[in-house]
Every structure is written in structure tokens, then in C-alpha cells.
Design goal:
Length: 285
Amino acid sequence: MTAFPRTTVGGVSVSRMIIGTNWFLGFSHTSAAKDDYIKTHVMDRTRIADILEVFLNSGVDTVMGLIQRPQLWEGIQEAQQRTGKKLIVVSTPGIPVSPETPLQGFGAEAEKILDEEQRLGATFCFPHQGTTDALVDRCTRRIRHLDQLSRMIRQRGMVPGLSTHMPESIIYADESGADVETYISLYNSMGFLMQVEVDWIHHVITHAKKPVMTIKPMAAGQLRPFQAFNFVWNTLRTQDMVTVGTMAPKEAQECIDLSLGILERRDAEIQLQETRSKASIKPKA
């Protein structure tokens, strides 16, 4: 089996496909009912490990998400035990901000959260966009206190990066020489959750000084994998990454096989889904 292509971020070798975890933890971006379905049917350490095992066996060994959720952390441990392979964790903790944060920066609460990230074994630690985007200053073209967070992260032996939903954050981080090794950025052909047009986001990503970890390639399930992956893999740089969320082992394998086919410029042997209306376009046996 072909091992999935790799890139390097902050001196660490990572798979270009990253395992997303919203579909493990109940963040569907669809409806409260869909969130509840995920929490009931997927958010379990064994089910999560079943999916992670498929990725690990194909060389996709990098996972992104909220590692402090017990089901995810325990699923990671179980998958590693089953396969004997280590997962590289890109953790995205939320660090609270308040009206005082822009002036005073981060204190003991941030230290406590980052201590826990270190204890749980995160390789990369990128404070969630709910933290960093709140501190974007368009007047000064800087992200307030980002370097303080990066310094705290490095002191704990983890690699810092910038998680953002705002395209200007990447520009400002590059202009100011912020101490980050990569960026997390929305990127999909639909423009889902993106704040400006798709071609503008493409320009920002392909001109970034560091590799970019893109998220939401399938627009939280609104794009089919065939359209979604053909777009992202054919428009990103070889150093950039794509984060993929799935809810079942077979779904994970389909995403891997389809992506490898696109990257290797060949047709992937993917079983098509069937409906009665397609009977007339099927070839005769």
C-alpha cells in the first residue's frame, strides 16, 4: 500500500492528510440533531480508535483537535496500542479571553491549560481561532499577544502555530515575523465559512511563508469527497496539508484512496453509491 505523502512543519515530519476530529466530538456545523447523532453513535473511544486505526495503517499519522476531550485522547491511546504506531497530535485548545486580555495578555489560566496540553502529549499546540481571532488588530496589522502564547508553548516543548478563520491573520503573522511554524486556514471550493472569495483565500495560502494546514475541505459534509478533494489537492502547494473528518472506518478508507488517486494522477478504485435512478446508466454485465 502506498504510504501517504508527507511534509515538514517546524522540523516535524507530518502526513499531508490530517485526521480531523469534529465528526468525533459532535461538531457537525449542520444541526443540533446531527450533533446529537454524532455524540450518540460516534463519540466513543473504541469507535474513534477504529477510525484512527484505518488512517494509521495508510501512513496518515497526524490528528488535529481538542485533545483534552477524554473520548478523543483515549481513542488516540487505543489506536496507538493496536497498531504500534504513534499519532502526531495537533492540539487546538480554547484559551479564554476577556476585555482585559488585549491590554494585559495571558496569565495563570493559560498556563494551566498549556500545562495540560503538555501532559497529554501534544506535539503541536495552536490556540483555537476563538482565542486568536479575537486578538486580531486591523489597525496595527498584528495579532496581540500571539508571541506570548507561542513563547509559553515552546517553554513546554511543543511547536506553536496560528489557528485562524480570518485570512488577514496569516498576512499579519508573516508581516510581523510571528513565532509560528504553520497556519490553520479554512479552504474549500464552496467558500464555506470563508470570509472572502475562494480565489482570495487561495492567494493567501499559496503566498504564505509557512506551510498551511487547511480545514473544512468538504464544507462539513456539504461537498462530496470527489469534488472536494479534486479541488484542494490540485490547488494547494506540496508543503500544505488537508484536514479530513470522517465518522466511520470505511469512510476514512475512501477518503484516503480517493486522495491518493488524485495525488498520483490515476483513477482511484472507489465503489460508487447506488440508487434506483442510476440503473439505466450502469453497463450491462
